[in-house]
Design goal:
Blueprint: H1 3-26, H2 32-73, H3 83-96, E1 102-109, H4 112-119, H5 121-138, E2 140-146, E3 149-155, H6 160-175, H7 178-181, E4 186-192, H8 200-216, E5 223-225, H9 228-249, E6 253-262, E7 268-279, E8 283-285, H10 287-297, H11 300-320, E9 328-331, H12 334-337, H13 342-352, E10 360-365, H14 373-386, E11 389-395, H15 401-407, E12 412-415, H16 417-423, H17 427-443, E13 446-450, H18 455-463, E14 468-470, E15 478-479, H19 480-488
Parallel strand pairs: 4-5, 7-9, 9-10, 10-11, 11-12, 12-13, 13-14
Antiparallel strand pairs: 1-3, 1-4, 2-3, 6-7, 6-14, 6-15, 7-8
Helix pairs in contact: 1-2, 4-5, 5-6, 16-17
Bound molecules: ligand C2E and magnesium ion (2 copies).
């Protein structure tokens, strides 16, 4: 029983005893005034009891919440606190210390998922405990925020990450073994606290933003500070999210087409549909700025359907005007194809237009297969059964390219731009491209090489019998008007696939 409860019970007992004693003292022959006093006392007592019950209830609730807080604030695996304990800890710590000297640091184990798969989940748990012990021993307010992400406070200095890195590796080597040190690396986000007048949630968002940035850096133990540049980018992201809905209704998104060249005939062999955003508020925004964000907030589904619908419209116009019919490939994000009613929406769209579906390829990036494998693969089978073609985009950039080829019915492979970049200097990359093309021919799959920027690259691809080249050397992405004028209007009607 808590102290407050004990005091309250004691008060009740005293009042009750006083009432009984005064009643016994006057009960023989009470005067009118005494009867009135006793009646009033009983009423007051009843009122007091009511207040007491309410007070006890409140105390009880508070106790339960505190107990629940305590239970949920501790991570059962590592014994560290969580985000809400960090929020309390950081405020308490900064009442006695200058915020401008400190940073909130976020640590994430690089490719932790792969570590779990390679060494087992028990080893993964053990690794988390080792990290927790290092952080608890040497850093302020260390907590496990979620999964493999830890937060703690440290003095802002350029060597802080170096020091921590060695402590972690020492602990891993002595507890797990030397061989583990070679496969484990970390990513760090750092957000200097400055004057700490921002709410904790905002500082946490900023440090996570910095971590996201560090994760893009392939270097081992990369870190990123949340500085004015990152701040600008995070503001841009917020602006993008604020403007995206209006942008669709204000028709700020536009369909562009990048033609691809048939290397056998030297003619245009169709093109790829690419979205462009020219915003009233933000100016021209490049796809690499808004696509990842739309994939996160789900808006990509609307964009993908907008582009697909625009492509249907364009081809239907070409048919109506007796123009040349060239196939167009349309990017569909992994988020879009895994969306619950995606196939139904696609089927309805296809029904609405009189367009042969073999003229439209659905481009899916190889990395779409990595998460949500079953859903994506079964969607691909259905899309193909409807009559669309399937292009595997950015082929060679993922982990399991050959598996993808074995398990998925693909019509076209689009070789990732990076291979061609490296082929300029690396004989190995040249050999890889050559053999991907040979393999594809054996499997009856056509090949597009992306990012062709020079005549040398173009000639090399022709010499190894690559089917199509897409890149700035042949044509940049352009408006549908330009595409039609340059590649579609003047030619005779024929279907090329
Ligand atoms: P992607 O599907 O691999 O598209 C090819 C990208 O390479 C395009 O960038 C294109 O402009 C660029 N590119 C083409 N030729 C060259 C070249 O010779 N050199 C260089 N350096 N780049 C070249 P873009 O339009 O900025 O799009 C980037 C990515 O954004 C696309 O890569 C695709 O993944 C995504 N994306 C674009 N439009 C859409 C869309 O409507 N829906 C979805 N889900 N994703 C889209
Ligand atoms: Mg593409
Ligand atoms: Mg691509």
């Amino acid at each position: 029983m808590s102290r407050i409860k004990r005091v309250l019970y004691a008060i009740v007992l005293i009042i009750f005893t006083a009432l009984v004693v005064s009643y016994v003292a006057v009960s023989a022959e009470p005067t009118l005034a005494q009867s009135f006093a006793i009646t009033m006392s009983v009423i007051l007592f009843a009122f007091f009891m009511l207040c007491l019950i309410i007070a006890l209830d409140i105390v009880n609730d508070r106790e339960k919440t505190r107990e629940l807080d305590k239970a949920t604030a501790r991570d059962p695996l590592t014994g560290l606190g969580n985000d809400s304990s960090m929020e309390r800890g950081i405020s308490a710590f900064l009442t006695k210390n200058r915020p401008s000297r400190y940073s909130l640091v976020c640590l994430d184990i690089a490719e932790f998922h792969r570590f779990n798969v390679m060494f087992g989940y028990a080893a993964g748990d053990y690794l988390l405990k080792i990290i927790a012990d290092v952080l608890r021993a040497d850093y302020r307010c260390a907590v496990r925020s979620f999964g493999d992400v830890f937060l703690f406070l440290d003095e802002t200095s350029s060597v802080m990450i170096e020091g921590l890195k060695y402590k972690l590796y020492d602990a891993i080597e002595s507890d797990l073994g030397r061989q583990y040190v070679q496969v484990i690396s970390f990513k760090f986000g750092v957000c200097p606290l400055g004057d700490f007048c921002k709410p904790y949630r905002l500082i946490r968002d900023n440090v996570m933003f910095a971590l996201k940035y560090a994760k893009k850096n392939p270097k081992q133990n990369a870190f990123a500070f949340y500085n004015s540049e990152l701040q600008k980018e995070s503001v841009l992201q917020k602006d993008i999210e604020m403007n995206m809905l209006h942008a669709l209704s204000k028709e700020e998104f536009q369909l562009y087409i990048q033609p691809k060249c048939n290397l056998l005939t030297g003619e245009c062999g169709g093109g790829e549909a690419l979205v462009r955003w020219s915003s009233d508020q933000l100016g021209f925004v490049t796809p690499n700025k808004f696509i990842p964000l739309f994939e996160k907030n789900g808006f990509i589904v609307e964009i993908d359907f907008f582009i697909l619908t625009s492509v249907f419209n364009m081809i239907e116009t070409h048919i109506a005007r007796g123009m040349r019919l060239l196939p167009i490939s349309v990017n569909q994000s992994k988020i879009t194809i895994s969306f619950p009613n995606y196939l139904e929406r696609l089927r309805n769209l296809a029904k609405k237009y009189h367009v042969p579906l073999s003229l439209i390829s659905i481009e899916i990036t190889e990395s779409a297969m990595e998460a949500n494998y079953e859903t994506v693969v079964s969607a691909i089978y259905e899309i193909r059964e409807m009559g669309f073609r399937i292009d595997m985009d950015d082929f060679g950039s993922g982990y399991s390219s050959l598996n993808t080829l074995r398990e998925i019915p693909v019509d076209t492979l689009k070789i990732d731009r990076e291979f061609l970049n490296e082929a300029d200097t690396s004989e190995r990359s040249k050999a890889i491209i050559k053999n991907i093309i040979n393999l594809s021919k054996d499997l009856g799959i056509s090949v597009v090489c992306e990012g062709v920027e020079t005549g040398v690259q173009y000639d090399f691809l022709r010499s190894i019998s690559c089917d199509y080249a897409q890149g700035y050397y042949y044509a940049r992405p352009m408006t549908t008007n330009d595409y039609e004028n340059r590649f579609v209007i003047d030619s005779e009607v024929e279907i090329i696939d």
